[in-house]
Design a protein that fits this description.
Four copies of one chain form a homotetramer. Chain A is an alpha+beta fold and 309 residues long. Chain A is 46% helix and 14% strand. Chain A has three domains: 160 residues, 2-Layer Sandwich (Gyrase A, domain 2); 58 residues; 50 residues, no CATH class. In chain A, strands 1-2-3-7-4 form a five-stranded antiparallel sheet. A two-stranded antiparallel ribbon of chain A has the order 5-6. In chain A, a hairpin with a 7-residue loop joins strand 5 and strand 6. In chain A, helix 8 packs across helix 9 and helix 10 runs antiparallel to helix 11. The radius of gyration of chain A is 25 Å and the shape is flat. Chains in contact: A-B, A-C, A-D, B-C, B-D, C-D. At the A-B interface, helix 4, strand 5, helix 5 and helix 6 of A face helix 4, strand 5, helix 5 and helix 6 of B.
């Protein structure tokens, strides 16, 4: 390997230093702020070049290398960057967040201290309707007049729950027990430290349109306001190759080829063999999730299949 | 390495098979049951002997080997056993449980399905007082007459919260939002899969007297009813060398030696040098957590220090 | 959630039980054999249904569910299956294997025991040429006459290294030091335990044509002989959606759409904007990895781009 | 929680900055150098205080808090510090190192590049004898005249292996295959990134007298030259409570108490019940590892047991 100079300095990213400690508000009373970080785009290149046994090159080549690494899922160089965030978030969203096991966490303890005196409130026009096609999602909003009633009821509920909590505390009840009936909307805080590879995985899942609204606000903010400043080249590559990418299965590629070639018969044959074109007793195409997802993907390519069962 | 026979069978533990699927009740409406497992004491020995390049020996030597491995914190053979539990637990206790990141988890989704219609209730004589010496613990109980009032209030609260939740659902609110004000006492369920090494670590922390009452009930049950049947030799060794062990720091060993030798002057000198014997302005020994923890430990040995600052 | 019966049994997969302990040979003196396992396709469905709060359905729906989970990268249900393998492999390939950190490992210790008396030998027709286009790969073979010379030299070398090792041992040298000059081709053995999700990730990387020949033999065998029997539905889905899939970036989808629409001008414009069509001083298209990878992908669709810089 | 100022800076440790990039030599041709880091003692306190919901206090209290956290194995605050090292080490020692799975790694690739042209050489007086009482250790050295012969033989061997490797490369053999007979003593390099909690665990195991000499040199250097400068308060606490600590099992505490009280009869009874005092056919005390380890521990306390079977 190349001889390396003995005097080096920590990698510093001025654009990130400029927002260190700054509270980015999320939801009605949450926030995210960067506490500290290690590395940047340069550290990814540096680590990859240890593997390749090469010294540092120009920025232009760095960009190509980072894009290559990300595209081909060479994840270890991205693990060489680390970031620590301070997060204030409703417990309900935190319950989802904490499922990502690859981070380090210190959360505010409501055994040791009084619970944070704040619960997520919902405004008149923020009450969401159950999605009919997505069993775990929402779609559209309640009329804001109905919303007003719901918001008032929520405000009363929060007031009541808070009073009961505080009364318990004043009576001398153990904090660890007094909290048992606090609502899931209660805010909590935590320090959360994670490497860039695992952070991108988190963002991929939680910036997705299927993620719940609340956690999506946090993830989107981390991506657009923090990661984009910290590692701009990686962020661009991640957007291109991960956020905006489309994946076709082996069978889908075969059918796509036939559709492009306008060979409808073969396209239908392969689809049939894959179980996409079964008929119900009325002779209608049965619901097939795989077929429907494919249709959606090729719509982006301006194509429409002409299924014949 | 020794030649190994080609036909082997899965390790089966009849005592564990006998309780497979059985619901052990915990708290008022929780439970734990074993869904499946892999390995047993025999698998630990088997794995250790791959490292040592040796074949299987007699049970008596197996016991010695397992005790040796556990005592010397050779953890990898214990990772060769795996267990899968089905757990029903209040979300508040689950929040603590999930902090152990080395397990695999599938939790009941209240985005996809209606929240479980049950919250942990507290009986008249179960309301706990805040501990005065342990900021994150409880100590003693409220008088059951006061407890009765608290329990009734809790019952009303749960009824109210449930009605609000169900009303929101009936109105067509998205499940993911309707749940936001459910209390932390609401039950959840999960499949939880973990290897034996990490399970013992979990038990060490959560069977401890400083762990919160609720999670301690689950941990104790897992240890005494499940692990003891699954890996009886390991469970005995774990009890001896981990649950019941006492650790002395280097300085503590030095002071202990002097106290045993009845050399009070030297004992005091070392304690002083370690900052244990500082005086306040009234000439009294200052509070020193390290000194007090040492005193507690040597009490078990029938020793009492005679500090002179 | 549904009431569940109290008496259950471990999930058993007869097709896997039938090969339990059987040594599948790999390379000249390596092998893989299954020691034990937990779960199967059924356990994946079982875990997913805890999340959805639903009971068990028919096999037909199970297949759809497993395919949905795998396609949408819902990884936690796949973590509910676990397998333990006994592997005999050259240290050089094991060095790559062990980089996958999500498994449990017990390796044969050459500190404690004599090194395994076997090194991977290379036959006359197995000596590989350095790939010219892939800096970290091989391509084609040496003529077997040259190979014969190489194999003989290797045999002498192994003999010599073995003699030196044994002489050191006989002299009374510490095993931990005597081994220092053993070749990387020396065989080692290990127990290796991993969950199905992480195993599939391992297979995706190590069955790939870019993985080194040696480790690819092990990975392919695990996939085709073991995983296919253990979890046949998952294996089929993994083959369709992961092994055989093709991913297009956002920009690639845009260009693909234009090529399908035979709108060459727009295709070229987007490609240009993406930096794919830069010219060198001779007016030739510069080497662009991103462009070339795209060309390769659309070849599968029967398409050829007509670049104009 | 307390209001926190919006403008913060990365935690910088001048004593560590002063050695950033400096190569600390290890063995004949290895080194360790710090590439970057995040946090310090202050970050541990900062994270712990998020849990406790408190602001920053004085240094004196910080020391007490860090010692408390370390003593009571509250590990998460220590995970808030991260360090990245550049390591050059023989592959044989690296094989042990890499077993610690909680770090991030980028290793020099001998598939992509030529193997590092250096193997660990052993000087005349460095050849170690197999330990007779520790099956996996060494004890004492060969006479340096014998050592000279061994070193010369080793030099020839390394020369020969290097020539064969280079000849293979020159012939056009794939690097991934040419390396197969390189000795385990060949140097490799890697970037290795780990959090402080897991680093301390690594040091506990690898600074131990039972760790192999080679890796112990690296671990000791990391501890004494790097961690001691990075987090001096933590390093002191780690030395006191972990490196120098002694652990007694429940049974050992009981026997120790009886020995201190000079109650030999009871001490013997408990020991007997624990299986420590079995006799062989000659009426001699059988070898008992547990008994011997206990004897060794209480020797430190100036005590000698008087066993009577």
């Amino acid at each position: 390997m190349q001889e390396q100079s003995e005097n080096i300095e920590s990698i510093k990213i001025p654009a990130l230093d400029a927002i260190l400690g700054k509270k980015f508000p999320v939801l009605d009373d949450g926030f995210i702020r960067v506490i500290d970080y290690m590395g940047g785009d340069e550290a990814i290149v540096q680590a990859a070049r240890v593997s390749y046994g090469k010294g540092t090159k120009q920025v232009r080549q760095d960009r190509g290398l980072i894009r290559y690494l990300l595209r081909h899922k060479h994840s270890t160089p991205f693990e060489m960057c680390e970031i620590k965030l301070h997060i204030r978030i409703p417990m309900d969203a935190w319950r989802q967040w904490i499922r990502h096991r690859t981070a380090n966490v210190n959360e505010y303890s409501t055994r040791y201290s009084l619970a944070i005196d704040s619960a997520q409130t919902t405004k008149n026009d923020e009450w969401r309707l159950q999605s009919s096609d997505n069993k775990q999602g929402s779609s559209g909003f309640f009329d804001s007049q109905i919303g007003q009633i719901l918001s008032e009821e929520e405000a009363n509920l929060h007031k009541n729950l808070k009073e009961i909590y505080l009364k318990r505390i004043e009576m001398g009840m153990a904090r660890e027990q007094a909290r048992k009936d606090l609502p899931l909307s209660t805010y909590t805080e935590a320090y959360w430290k994670i490497d860039l590879h695992n952070l991108l995985h988190f963002l991929k899942l939680r910036m997705d349109s299927h993620a719940q609204f609340e956690i999506r606000q946090y993830a989107t903010l981390i991506g657009q306001e923090i990661v984009s400043k910290w590692v701009p080249i990686t962020w661009e590559a991640f957007t291109d190759f991960s956020i905006n990418s489309t994946e076709f299965s082996g069978v889908e590629m075969q059918i796509l080829k036939k559709i492009i070639e306008k060979d409808e018969i073969s396209a239908n044959e392969i689809a049939k063999k894959s179980g996409w074109l079964e008929l119900d007793k009325n002779g209608e195409l049965k619901h097939s999730l795989e077929r429907m997802e494919f249709e959606q993907k090729i719509t982006t390519l301006g194509l429409i299949p002409n299924w014949k069962a």
